[in-house]
Amino acid sequence: MHFSLTAWAACAPGLREPQAWLAWARQPHVPLRQGLDSDLPALTELPAMARRRLSPLGRMAVQAAWWCQEAPVGGASQAMESSQRDATCPVVFASRHGDTQRTLELQDALAAGQAMSPTAFGLSVHNAISAQYSIARGDRDNYIAVAAGVASAAAGLLEALSLLADGAPEVLLVCHEEGVPLPYDRYVDPAESPGPAMAWAWAWRLNSASSASAQALRFTLSLSHAEGLGQAPASACAAPASTTLLPFGLDLLRFVLTDEPQWTREVDGLSWRLRRDPGTVAASQAPAQGPVASGGVP
């Protein structure tokens, strides 16, 4: 499946600006949540009341999505930019566990025999973050929330490409994850959730390879049965050894922000492969959007 990535944005503790993320991709690490509560993304696009309804993970996901959807597309005129923003743009949010902070707080309350807050429950369901984003933008386009285990980011990408194949002119893909807190972390693959301190979000604007601007990144996604089915756990292939420690979705972002020709990851007997098409521009030339100012907003 061929597609173009026309703009991107990402948000994590200590990582906001595109240049910081490009440097991170050369020396990747898992962003830690430490200090996030006091260094939240500004998210000035939303009223203060709407910002307060979002958890720290939700604020990162919504901020990345907003930056990406408003990012200028290289080579497009202002009139074309306005037309693209007015056009139908389905949105796919992908996360393995969703907003675990809210969900597990509710489970703890239930186990303790305490009453559960209806508001907290409404904000803990898997599509709650995407719903807050659509409400903030007054958006009535198609929204999908995907959870597909370790490979949730790739499943979200596959869903987005299916929407493009079905006729959507453009799709916004948002991937977000945070570490599973104690004591539930014992049930999660350590390679995919290195600890409760992990937190990150990214967003991509996608369209068909044939309609993209010259500055778009062009890729081909393929899926096949992994070799040696059932003989080995999830692993990363055709990538530097240090990146195998990155969670799936974060490693996918790392690949896109480098100039490596191919990325492969095997999960649950399936091999996900993303190939950079010949002649595509360098990742550093692709349109990206970051903060004008960050932090200090309640």
UniProtKB/TrEMBL annotation:
It comes from Hylemonella gracilis str. Niagara R. This is 3-oxoacyl-ACP synthase. The lineage of its organism: Bacteria, Pseudomonadati, Pseudomonadota, Betaproteobacteria, Burkholderiales. Gene3D superfamilies: 3.40.47.10. It comes from the Bacteria. Residues 21-273 form the Beta-ketoacyl synthase-like N-terminal domain. Pfam families: Ketoacyl-synt_2 (PF13723). GO terms for molecular function: acyltransferase activity.
